[in-house]
């Protein structure tokens, strides 16, 4: 009696391997940006828990200093990406930035990151 072979062919295996490599390459390009954003969120939460009475410019400088400790690139988040707004007596720290990541040939990923935290205490203008 002849036994029937089962399994994947070489062409099928190569097809699955190419798809897995494509998504792996995409993950290698995108994951560092999301890890960097987690560092931004951590630095912002540290600013929010520090408290105290500071000026708006002192909050910006303190955040930029904490971003250095979180290995956030200086080109990623700049002073123009950091906003401190007052709404009904409460201050909100917002960081909003875009990051463009080259992928293949003329295909790029454009990622938009945005996070806000409430600041305790009062801020001097």
From TrEMBL:
Keywords: Membrane, Transmembrane, Transmembrane helix. This is DUF4845 domain-containing protein. It holds the Pfam family DUF4845. It comes from Dyella thiooxydans. The chain crosses the membrane at residues 7-28.
